[in-house]
Amino acid sequence: MSSVDKSGTYKLGDCSVHRLGYGAMQLAGKGVFGPPKDHDAAIAVLREAVAAGVDHIDTSDFYGPHVTNLLIREALAPYRDNLTIVTKIGARRGDDASWLPAFAPKELEQAVHDNLRNLGLDVMDVVNLRLMFDVHGPAEGSIEAPLSALAELQRKGLVRHIGLSNVTRAQIAEGRKICDIVCVQNHYNLAHRDDDALIDQLARGGIAYVPF
């Protein structure tokens, strides 16, 4: 039994995935910008992750930009039936590699289409709305407008499930009034444990907590 299998499983929308997934952010170049230093090594890492039992990959088309998704497609398409690919929208990269908000409805729609095209998919399993009121951590601000735009893309059949990333408790509560939220993706580790109580609260509501 691999370490991935030993991690157990949880529900992400209507998907059952292992608790140990793969975050593809660092496949791109330095600063998550541009191509990787070693293209073949990046492809090998992705294939080895799936071979080891990983069935949940976290990515975004603003990694690179476009770089990470194209690597995933090259390495893994056609995808296994049990592979769940989760992406994020709500940000874009500046020419200087800066991280910039991209919350307008047209920007969100373009981001979903970019993810679908570069991954070679017809529909995204899960799309997380990444909030950018503060690049470095959650900050208050209404999410009604961008989340409503994402929910409309879900109604059009481009997105199966919706999650939130870099969010506060108030934003989660606001979001749940707009559409079903299947996951929350926030910064969390042994040293950074601000969300300890939130994890239990989400679990009671059937919402997965996916730390990065």
Low-confidence stretches: none
CATH fold category name: TIM Barrel
Mean of all residue-level pLDDT scores: 96
Radius of gyration, Cα only, in angstroms? 16 Å
**How many domains comprise the coordinates?**
1
Principal-axis shape: globular
Provide the succession of SSEs. HEEEHEHEEEHEHEHEHE
In terms of structural class, how would the helical and strand content be classed? alpha/beta
Number of helices: 7
How many strands in all?
Answer: 11
- Sheet with most strands: 7 strands, parallel
* CATH homology-level superfamily: NADP-dependent oxidoreductase domain
How far the N terminus sits from the C terminus, by CA atoms, comes to: 25 Å
Q: Summarize the amount of helix as a percent range.
A: 25-40%
For the record, what CATH class applies?
A: Alpha Beta
Please state how the strands of the largest beta sheet are arranged side by side. 3-4-5-8-9-10-11
Q: What share of residues are in beta strands? A: 15-25%
Give the second-level CATH assignment, the architecture.
Alpha-Beta Barrel
Detailed description of the structure:
The structure is a single chain. This protein has one domain (3-20, 28-209): TIM Barrel (Alpha-Beta Barrel), CATH 3.20.20.100. Helix content is 33%, strand content 21%. The protein contains seven helices and eleven strands. It has helices spanning 3-6, 39-51, 67-76, 105-119, 144-155, 169-176, 196-204; strands at residues 9-12, 15-18, 22-23, 56-58, 84-89, 91-93, 99-101, 124-130, 159-165, 183-185, 208-209. A seven-stranded parallel β-sheet has the order 3-4-5-8-9-10-11, with helices on one face. Strands 1-2 form a two-stranded antiparallel ribbon. Strand 10 (183-185), helix 7 (196-204) and strand 11 form a beta-alpha-beta unit. The longest helix is centred in the middle third of the chain and has 15 residues, at 105-119. The radius of gyration is 16 Å and the shape is globular. The two termini are 25 Å apart.
